[in-house]
Amino acid sequence: MTVLEALRKAESRLQAIPEPRLDAEYMLAEALHTSRLMMLIDKSRALTAAEEEAFEGMVARREKREPLQYILGSQSFMGFSFKTDPRALIPRNDTEALCEEALRHIRPGDRVLDLCTGTGALGIAIKKLCQKAVVTATDISEAALSLAKENARSLQAEVRFLQGDLFTPVSGEQFDVIVSNPPYIPEALRGQLQAEVEKEPALALFAGEDGLDFYRRIAKEAPGHLLPQGWLCLEVGDGEAEAVAALLKADFESVRILTDLNGLDRVVSGQMRS
Fold this sequence. Notes:
Blueprint: H1 3-13, H2 20-32, H3 36-41, H4 49-63, H5 68-72, E1 74-77, E2 80-83, H6 96-105, E3 111-115, H7 121-129, E4 134-139, H8 142-155, E5 159-163, E6 175-180, H9 195-198, H10 213-221, E7 226-235, H11 241-248, E8 252-259, E9 265-272
Helix pairs in contact: 1-2, 2-4, 6-7
């Protein structure tokens, strides 16, 4: 079987997913241990038996709507490659808007807290891009933290990881910047999301009846963990930005809403009142 034949066969099997040909190309390149571009240059190349077997296994997993990033085992975020598997939520490109907003407020030597770190993408990217920052990352999930630590080792990022519910592991500590991409999907949507999303950890997805449970807690508790003039930067779900901004206005000034690359409201940030 040639590269072209393998792609056509896989594309036919994956018609139920949004981009069957593109996913097939990424999986076949992984099976061939080459780049997608190099693979496409020689579409007449014949696959070995081992390559066919590896590709078949990936296609079978994707056919069952397992996320592509779990199959490939990695996802790019802020230019860095993060290991991905079912222990944590997959980093999204949309979240880069949150990382960029946090970086605007971080100075050398600042203490930064990443709540609900998951794969560690935010905290690790911040450390890599502002190496003199002192970064702590927390998550309630022991499994997610194990993955985050693997990513930190792989990317040679010195980040302190602590397990616990939101601010509990950093009791008594204060930070210059707090950043978080918390769970924000309303419970009513459980079972109605894209099949791939439903295969990610529910603990990292759902946040009460209206999706705002974690924002209420963070807005209430963050002032006790921010230094004077400190910044809080949050990712928000679709249609949640105004409600989250309203939660911050009691203790924060300069509250603003920022959009992602798709023009959707994605980040709410604010500075502690003097």
